[in-house]
Amino acid sequence: MPGQTLDDIRELAQQLRVxxxxxxxxAGSGHPTSSMSAADLMAVLMVRHLRYDWQRPEDxxxxxxxxxxxxxxxxxxxxxxxxxxxxxEELMTGYRRFGSRLEGHPTPILPWVDVATGSLGQGLxxxxxxxxxxxxxxxxxxxVWVLCGxxxxxxxxxxxxxxxxxxxRLSNLTAIVDVNRLGQRGPTELGWDLDTYAKRAEAFGCQxxxxxxxxxxxxDKALAQAAGxxxxxxxxxxxxxxxxxxxxxxxxxxxxxxxxxxxAERAILELGGERHLTVSGPRPDGGSPRAWPxxxxxxxxxxxxxxVATRLAFGQALAAVGARGDVVALDGEVDNSTHLEEFAKAxxxxxxxxxxxxxxxxxxxxxxxxxxxxxxxxxxxxxxxRAYDFIRMSAISAANIRLCGSHAGTEIGADGPSQMALExxxxxxxxxxxxxxxxxxxxxxxYLVQEMAERSGVVYMRTTxxxxxxxxxxxxxxxxxxxxxxxxxPGDQVTLIGAGVTLHNCLAAADQLGGEGISARVIDLYSxxxxxxxxxxxxxxxxxxxxxxxxxxxxxxxIGCAVLDAFNDAGHPVRIRHxxxxxxxxxxxxxxxxxAAGISAQQIAQAARDALSG
Amino acid sequence: MPGQTLDDIRELAQQLRVxxxxxxxxAGSGHPTSSMSAADLMAVLMVRHLRYDWQRPEDxxxxxxxxxxxxxxxxxxxxxxxxxxxxxEELMTGYRRFGSRLEGHPTPILPWVDVATGSLGQGLxxxxxxxxxxxxxxxxxxxVWVLCGxxxxxxxxxxxxxxxxxxxRLSNLTAIVDVNRLGQRGPTELGWDLDTYAKRAEAFGCQxxxxxxxxxxxxDKALAQAAGxxxxxxxxxxxxxxxxxxxxxxxxxxxxxxxxxxxAERAILELGGERHLTVSGPRPDGGSPRAWPxxxxxxxxxxxxxxVATRLAFGQALAAVGARGDVVALDGEVDNSTHLEEFAKAxxxxxxxxxxxxxxxxxxxxxxxxxxxxxxxxxxxxxxxRAYDFIRMSAISAANIRLCGSHAGTEIGADGPSQMALExxxxxxxxxxxxxxxxxxxxxxxYLVQEMAERSGVVYMRTTxxxxxxxxxxxxxxxxxxxxxxxxxPGDQVTLIGAGVTLHNCLAAADQLGGEGISARVIDLYSxxxxxxxxxxxxxxxxxxxxxxxxxxxxxxxIGCAVLDAFNDAGHPVRIRHxxxxxxxxxxxxxxxxxAAGISAQQIAQAARDALSG
Lengths: 614, 614
What we know:
The structure is a homodimer.
Chain A: H1 6-27, H2 32-36, H3 39-49, E1 64-67, H4 73-82, H5 88-94, H6 123-138, E2 144-149, H7 156-167, E3 173-179, H8 194-203, E4 207-212, H9 216-227, E5 233-238, H10 261-270, E6 307-309, H11 310-321, E7 327-331, H12 335-338, H13 341-346, E8 351-353, H14 358-370, E9 374-380, H15 381-384, H16 388-396, E10 401-406, H17 424-429, E11 435-437, H18 442-454, E12 458-462, E13 467-469, E14 484-487, E15 494-498, H19 501-515, E16 520-524, E17 527-529, H20 533-542, E18 547-550, H21 559-569, E19 576-579, H22 590-597, H23 601-613
Parallel strand pairs in A: 1-2, 2-3, 3-5, 4-5, 7-8, 7-9, 9-10, 10-12, 11-12, 15-16, 15-18, 18-19
Antiparallel strand pairs in A: 6-13, 11-17, 14-16
């Protein structure tokens, strides 16, 4: 594409429309009309404003383009064709096909895609994370452009994102809202009430620019204005769904429907036929990200028997691991509870306060991970449920994020069930490719924090509120996937399996049983996923398959389930005595609540006796 | 409290402060300072505006008071004392104690509490649901007053709530934001920037009133103005945390900390000492909720062998169940996908479009359930993950809500993983007291919709995108907790267990095996929780413990786990061949994707052969 006149850009926009139609009609599914509304916006962006080296997507100086409205993938992939990095053939034969990288919604299998989208309201929050990296860590002038749908502004996460974008003065972030007024099932809440969109964006601290999203000159001016602003920009663009093809333009009933073959032919005709233009837009300015010096990590050491909460050890260890210059931390306004404040004190310049917005908390971590940082995000484990969709999607994004959830289980005591994580292990285990660790003491917690930094995917640590004795000397290793036999003797008759606070209860139970002449093996199952199947099999073999599992979690999907799965996968079915929280807890002391839940030392000992007699 | 002068109210406010201090100091935990900031607001509300019969909390004409900032429970319980329904003794000896109904955060164990709060940003969305009921269903003039914290406005769910409140013109809803400028760990994002709060609320379509939250006259005027508005109101009240006790007022470091005994004494002195006033505020206007006539439910009938998607059967059955006047439905802007549109067509006046705001979708259901309606909320199952915190909390609220998640698993095909629910069963099983059903055909889906309406707690149905043959005649019953042996013979050698689409794959596998002379029993595990342990035990006994479980879900926490748990709980450990989705899927056809996941008929048959030879 030699010149860059608006007429040239208009041609490109028509090509993007035609290709969006062609690929979705060929696939027999997809969202051409949602692509057509945004084609003008993206054509101008691509030709004049997106500073991107398509041959070097790994260039740190590149701008970032995120399709928060991931269903407009035909448009995005058509842009890739126009950029010369995806062939017309791949577009026509690959889109939505099995084994192809051109999936129904974008995923980072494609080198030009930062994050998976398709669950609405996530691309913009993710973009906030990338923009944070640009402004505060990379210190590079790249811009983050996010194409949003109008329907997705109904998601609260969009407002969490704009709020944080303004709070952090992310002038490098631009949201382009494609207000085509039609959602999946009919008109959106706000229709073409552009002023209300603008008012909301302004109220949330952003510059709002209202434009006709099909006027190339207006688009160009708005994008330039966004790039020069001192705060985040929201471009509110009035568009028409299916723009350019009179039979569907601004009509209901065409969401997520490819045009049937004859209609597609008429559409392509009306749009001026196929084109095969190639674009080269502006190049990145160059430059390298700020180099954050790394020092030696020296983990905190804890004295055997001293009472230290694992949440405190998490914070202290993370402060130590922060000697690595790539480690960053994000708080959900509870850093004095999670003890993430230890990191804040040590490394304030790599610390981001996200306040009480757990969805944005996770999305910011995902965005930081896009730029290669090693983010740790922490809040109460119970409140990570608030961000489950984001956690799920981050697995599809192949993001490397580390999460810490504190205040697990009934052990928290008086605050009551709203603050107790009792389903977090089920939730986190079910995330694709996840790692779940649950240390029982400060030493193992500290070690595992360092392990987390090395690990890819979604990595979750569950910590406990109360302080319990340090069980391990400072030189013991806790590799992910391992387990510790904390107590054993040749004559063990039963195995007690716990993690976190229940390990301490298991140890106390073993003491009780010992007093009765019953020898109990105790296993610290600090790595819930992956799990140490060998350790379990050995313990089962040594104790005649007599096994007790105690967990401060609901019975479904947690440690008991992990143990049963492990034995099942090993082809060695066993019966476990499974102690878990079966009733809805209330308030009380930790001891009262654990007894009420049936996971106290006494109850574990009783289950062991039952196993021996049963 | 005889008069109702502002001086009287001031006395009450001081009492509420003193009691908040007393009960939290006695308990040794709690949030007195967060209570003290809002005491003036609540005192005026209680004396002059909250139309509530404290002796008859079940009166449908009562106003509703929701503490979205649930940590201010000392204030709420002190109000209950002032109302004469909780004794001073109960307050002092019960608060946060084991077995007491005065839990750390409010729960509906208390008859004056509608919903459990404590996970921030939920009380207001719940209130939207109650207000929807008042305006559109009960048609009663009660008002819904929600006390919000300032920190929780960082949660996107608050903006989902205000957006929907304005969309539905819920003039009966007032949010009172206690802007004490201090969060848990330090200052909030916006501090005392009341104008920004107001601008945001106005931009979201609400009336905003900015006041001094310690000026009783201003409070009174604002509450009156709220009651007379034609749209929802947000009162933005500037307050001081710990108001009234100079040693903590507006100071950092006092969130969630009771005053130590000597400080508490000084505080009570400064606040004018203990009081034991009893208040009687305005009474409800009386009146009865609109009676929605109920007709006979006549479920749709499907022809054996006809191909019908379970999502369609869900919609059609719900339209039929809508003959009951108490059934209402809520859509997340996908009703043409979930087929909730069938209900919308049949019962438009009991249908609420929540647009793409899944948190508000669930919260609205919870609020409607407060008023005794039977809400069904539906969206893609994958997107229910967006609302997991709300679902978890609704169990603590003892809310009766019915959820339908469509487009389960890899079976959806081309749209790709962002749209596939692959962790929903794990998530839903882990909810306290939940019910999880997963029909395989239209007949069972329809039957189960009717069962759902009768069931309490969180009740979840998973539906499938594609159309598969009807397996059951219209007169077969599918009680929750049951299972169907779809195929069996005396010589069965192996049991194949599936649900949803995998049941069809199991049947095809049984056909294949039959061709090889292997007789397979097939179980339709339509009730995943509770599960039919007897049917499983019988099948295991009949087929020498040779069991194959196939599920279109990640391996953790789903059907395989439910089956292992059932056998374990029955004391009969078995090995299952567990086919589940182990890799991250992409796009493709349903057949391609199920084969790639290893859950196709061929692979089920192979697992059965392995079980026979292994």
